[in-house]
Amino acid sequence: MKGNGRIIEYALSTLARRKFKNFSVAAVFSVLIAVLSSILFLTHAYKTETLKLLDNSPAIILQNMSGGRHELIPTEYIKTLSGIAGVGQIAPRYWGYYYDSLTSANYTLMAVDEGMQDVKLIEGRMPQTDTECAVGRGVADLRQAGLKDDFFLITGAEQSVNLKIVGIFTANSAILTNDLVVMTKDGLVKFFNMPADRATDITIEVNNPAEVSMVARKIRHAFPNSRPILKSELIRTYDNIFNWRGGIVLTMFFGAIAAFMIFVWDKATGINAQERQEIGILKAIGWETSDVLTLKFWEGAVVAICSFFTGLILAYVHVFYFNAQFLAPVLKGWSVLFPRFEPMPYIDIYQIFVLFFLTVVPYVAAGVVPSWKAAISDPDVVMR
Amino acid sequence: MSKTKLFAGFIFLEAAVLAALYIGSVSRVQLKEPEMALKRRMVRVMKLTDVAFWTEARYTRHPSQADFFAPFQDFPSSVDHFPAGSIAPPLQIHGAR
Fold first, then answer.
1. Nearest Cβ partner of B22 from A333, A344, A347?
2. What tens digit of pLDDT does each residue of A52-77 get?
3. How many angstroms separate the CA of residue A322 from the nearest CA in chain B?
4. How many C-beta atoms surround the C-beta of residue A327 within 10 A?
5. How far does chain B reach from its first CA to its final CA, in angstroms?
6. Based on the domain organization, do B97 and B59 belong to the same domain?
7. How confident is the model at residue B57 (pLDDT cuts 50, 70, 90)?
8. Are residues B40 and B81 in the same domain?
9. Which domain holds residue B44?
10. What local confidence, expressed as pLDDT, does residue B40 receive?
11. Smallest Cα distance from B59 to chain A, Å
12. Which of A70, A73, A247, B93 is in the most buried spot, having the most CB atoms within 10 Å?
């Protein structure tokens, strides 16, 4: 047989003869690639963004434990902590949760401190008095509130606290601030009825990043009831959460892979009588075994490569232009407040190559292997 | 036009679209870099430890700050209530197999 070009031409003609079947296969293959790629694109994009952001978190967060649970931490610990060699800036954090029965949503209430005044991603400003607050875009939208509007919260004693919204975090910071209600420290301590000498937790910076675990060990030694959470643990937690090994994403991934494997297995376990006869005729008119294999390779490659590229394009458009409309409900879960899905288009080329070798290569091989078995047989036997 | 040319044209078109999307994604990430810098600064200044994706429970809002036994914190042997909980795999406990 003469040249690959003619074999490709013949392969395309063969595919065109069974256009409905081949088009259906290509459509299913494209959808499968689109689903898998969407999951990979979305999780990788959010994982990358989250890890890049959280790399700026405090080196250590110190929690106090009581009865095996998180407990408010005495601020007097700060004096001892500042005496530990290698410890940099130490600051107590005041924050807590608030369930809003009006909207059935959970808010995270947080106290402002001096450094926060120059946060840029906010319309308006941070609160300066006990009657002011700044809220996340999600909270503002849920309460249909704007700047200078009143914002009611009900304390544990069933008394309402009336705050004035002086700042709304911008929508592009929603991944960090969507459910936040930022108040002054005194306002928050009063609202949660916290003892004056307690904070929610303490953040600790360490001068030399290589000494973080050493400092954490010293802290554990000084306060056996405490739980230091290192930045590396925090990053590992999020790495796990967004890793495609996790939960629903895993299930979807394996569901799709299993469907594909059954499909490929069905193809690999044999070719039908018509295809067998076709191979016999080609052999009888003088085709070499290598020509038949090249033909079958191209038949598989045309469908697989077209489907792979189409699937990738569909996945990219779905995730980064339509904000993953089909996956969003799964990822949102039960959250009433969920930031707008706008993943940053971080792409991992390595993942695309892995997907290519997991899908295109088996598909092409599944077409070539049974044809090879038929092609090495005597044409007369094959055609019967 | 021969089928081979049509096929090559189609593959070339798809490859070109993919290349354009990839270049677009790189430039979009670069364009968003100043915004990312502001968000990183926000994390540092506000001492944030978690992202505000899932707000339905303490352990989904702040997975990094949750108790060690986070998925079962509400009562012993309780099943996981929230779909988001299934996205967070259980912690690897040292020595456990």
1. A347
2. 999 999 999 999 988 878 889 999 99
3. 14
4. 21
5. 63
6. yes
7. confident
8. no
9. 1-48
10. 93
11. 12
12. A73
Closest-approach residue (CA) in chain B for A91: B47
| Contacts of A36 by beta carbon, 8 Å cutoff, 6+ apart | A253, A256, A257, A311, A315, A355, A359
Strands A180-183 and A105-111: parallel
Do B4 and B39 fall within a single domain?
yes
- The mean pLDDT of chain A is 85
Q: What is the mean pLDDT of residues A289-310?
A: 88
Domain count, chain B: 2
Domain identity same for B97 and B53: yes
Assess whether B96 and B54 both reside in one domain.
Answer: yes
Residue A181 has a pLDDT of: 94
| Per-residue pLDDT at B26 exceeds 90 | yes
* Domain match, B41 and B65 both: no
pTM over 0.90: no
- The amino acid at residue A321 is Y
Tokens, residue A380: 């007369």
Residue A265 has a CB neighbour count (10 Å cut-off) of 11
| Contacts A–B by Cβ distance under 8 A | 204
Decide if pLDDT at B76 tops 50: no
Residues B40, B71: one domain?
A: no
Question: Bridge partners of A96?
Answer: A109
Round to whole Å and give the CA distance between A221 and A77: 13
The shortest C-alpha distance from A381 to chain B (Å) reads: 32
Q: Which residues of A touch B10 (CB under 8 A)?
A: 306
Whether residues B10 and B25 share a domain: the answer is yes
Domain boundary among B48, B72, B87: B48
Put simply, the answer to whether A53 touches B40 (Cβ < 8 Å) is yes
Of residues A172, A313, A335, nearest to B35 (C-beta): A172
Where would I find the beta strands (DSSP E) of chain A? 60-66, 69-71, 73-74, 87-93, 95-100, 105-111, 122-124, 132-135, 150-154, 160-169, 180-183, 198-199, 201-206, 226-230
Q: Alpha-carbon distance A219 to A226, whole Å?
A: 8
Min Cα separation B22/chain A (Å) = 8
- The answer to whether the CB atoms of B25 and A345 lie below 8 A apart is yes
**Residues B64/A229, Cβ–Cβ less than 8 Å:** yes
Each domain of chain A, given as residue ranges in start order, spans: 3-53+242-383, 58-230
